[in-house]
Write a structure and sequence with these properties.
This protein is α/β, with parallel strands linked by helices. The chain contains 41 helices and 13 strands.
Amino acid sequence: MSASSDSRFGALREQLADAATAFADSPDALTGILAGMVDDVDRALAEELEIFPVSHHSPSSALAMVRRLREKQPKVIYLELCEDLQPLLTELRNCELPVALQAFASDLAGFPAGSGPLSVIAPITEASAEYQAIAYALETPGVELLLVDRSADHVFQWQSPPDEDGTATAPATDADDPADPTQVDEKALHGDAVGLEIGDLRPGFAELEAYLLHHGKVRHWSEWWDQYVEQPLIGADHDTYRQVMVMIGSLFRRLRPTDTARADRDEDRERFMWTRMREHLASSGADPADCLYVCGAFHAASRVEQFGVRSTAPFEITERTGTTWRYGLIPSSHSAIEAQFGLAGGAVSIAAATWQKALTAGRVTPYRLAGQAGGRKRPARKPKATAPAAAGTATAGDRLSGFLATPARPGELDEAELLGWSVDIVRLARRNGYLASTADAIAVVETSVLLAGMRNRRRPTPYDFADAAVTCIEKDVVPGRRDVRRLCEIMFGGDRLGRVGYDALPPLARDVHDRLAPLGLDLQKRTVQRALLDLHGQPELQPCSDLLWMLRRLLPPEAVRPIMGERRLGERSVQESWDVAIGRHQRSIIELGYEGVTIEQVLEQRLRKAAWDPQATAAKALAAVEDSLLYLTNRRFTDELGARAVQLLAAERTVDDAPEVLYRIRQLLAYYRTSGTAELPEWCQAFVTTGYAHYCTLLPTAFVDDETGLRQVAAMLGFLMSMESLAMALGCDRAQLELAVRQSHPESPAKVALLWAAQSQLGQLPLTQLRERCTELLASPLTVGAFPHYLSGFVQALEPVPTLAPFVVEVLSAAFGQLPDPVLLPWLPTLITTLREQAGELVPILVREAGRTFPASLPALDSWAPPWVSAGAPAPAAGPSSGPEITRYAMTGPVPQLLTGFPLTAGAVADLFDCAVAPPADGRSAGGGLSTGGRSGSDQDGDGSTGGQHRVELVALLDAHPVPAGAAATLLGVG
């Protein structure tokens, strides 16, 4: 360090060391931090290349930049922004600030799969030092502007999830206003992009920030920064400004968590920037005295070995990945910037108001790009032809000591300004439904002064005023969608919204504007506009309708919303009505422009990507086919997607998507059959034949697999049976389906009922036998409790066997009509919940069938007979009764043979269940010849032992449990 440097800050270093010794418990550590801060300031000021430290969206930085540019008139400006964003700077002329520079990538190479799309944005406002530097360089002949920070590709190469280094992705803070839905929409302008900002100055320790907020009597860091940095520096000279900003950057750099990864990224950025600047100086031969390096104050206090133009320390810049990046401008807003970087609500608006006030007070003319929308019509005043100040800044004296020793002297109370604020906020409050009056305006003035005094301020700040307005006006009710704090933000400058001009839009966005021009809408407006299309009277508007439907498919739902009209397969509306808000969703349509040149190209890429995704299924591929038919007219592309659907179906090993596959293929087959084509496309035929064989193969496994739901099995059967005739015509064999059904042996009641329905449809189970099985289910106490699950299976069977609806109504009617309340009521909730969860969309079919079956009037009910009874079908037997009379089980079929062959075993089972009863009066059992007499020597069993009493007990067992006995006989092969 030179002697001049030592003498410049020597006194300050000694004062800080004495203070550390007097007040700190460990003076060595504090002395090292304070002395290091002084060394960082000294090093930055002594650098041959002038370093201009800034803070993001800071009016004091912007004002100091304007003054320095007019004084120094640099020929080269190095700016801390991603180097690959350089071509976008000239397009700022066609935009209305604030906007954001964006780098976007959807096709990734070299990044983890599934990590895209990647997006980086850098917001630009007029009240920012970077914009003033850009405007000066672009509007002044002979000035070169060079962006020297790492590229967008390096941003993600060096990123450690989930946050970036000085590029913050801070969540929204108390700036959120849930009462204002439009405000929430504006805060989403940046989407999920990584935000780049120049000069992120904020304590790294949460404890330090909380300490500063507590002793500063403020609620948010933005308020602390405005009170203790912005306002004192707004009128400071250049040397004071530089020294203070570097000192703050050094302080926050030294007082931060020891995060090695983040520190490495920060230092790599600084090495990157100094390497780029030295390369440019060496290649261009520029004099460092004619250059200006604009960077964040955090990086101005860098201590890397590559620091300075005279450094020879090497740094290897890694190559970019193979990712294709696209660049453009997207609209931004004050609230979007606040939400992106964790600023207080209204902080950027207050900064813009402070900037305008400082320009007026200091009579400073800012730099502005010529012809920029939303700005002044007259160009900025050109700088005077004075000799530039070269290296004089490096020998500037110690201004830091005086700044630190001088107490803050905020301006005196400006009563006119405060009264104007109070009148304006009361006027806004009344417009938004508040019962505010002149008395409230007076109360706001007095409360503002009171709050400022309590916080040791001689002049109320906008934050003090907002707190006072909330206290005096809002009280406890918000009558509208904006609260008083939001009204204060509007009053101080509002949430200014940026707009990208037509010439700065990508080709796709310009093409959309041109193709929608016949509608006569101003698509640059941020309002919702109504478009009426009479496609019958004005057929020339059909291309506009097609484009709107494609935009509906690709953009957020609020961008274009159909009010009247719809588009389905085979259907086209003759009149349509649309709400169009493309101007409000510029970001979305601009990002579409990064993916292709036309909307059709982007949609085709999206559909192809969805169909060939590693996680794609046959259902997703069919959805892509449907979208292709709806929005595109490319038959070859549609057939390509259909062939992909066939491949995916053949490769699937589960049937989770069977319901969606069935629904979509039915829709597509109906469309092709009614569209006038001679025959089905080849992919449709292949899908039917492949699906028929595929589902026949998986059907037996799906029936017994517990993880396969009832709905999926029903959809498989629906595919097989509803397309059976078409599959047969295409060469499939019906024996495949019959064999698959015979090999199915489900265990759950719902799937058993579904199998019975399938067997009935195939002719393997006559309807009379199916009716008998249902009668036995209702008659047996062992199965009547599970009857709701059987019924759920029958209802799901309406998908593959729609003709079964009358039978389901019959069974359900018999159950409700004959079962006693002690049996019916317990499983009624189970029936309702099961039908609602598993067959909600099929219940209306039963309701319509019941409406056709039952009489429509009450008198007709007296003489009405169920059609299944009048047709000669046996009525279902009554369920178990609590009365003494029990209906005898008719012992026919294999059951008597089972009892005759194994009488002792059957009798033992009867004894176990305590089913012994007296024999019938006629001495014969219900088994037709099987004696029920008591045990005597004359009654001999098959093995020569007495078994009459066993037979009596066995008859009682069969009377109570007929179905299990028949099932056991069948299982043992008796008969």
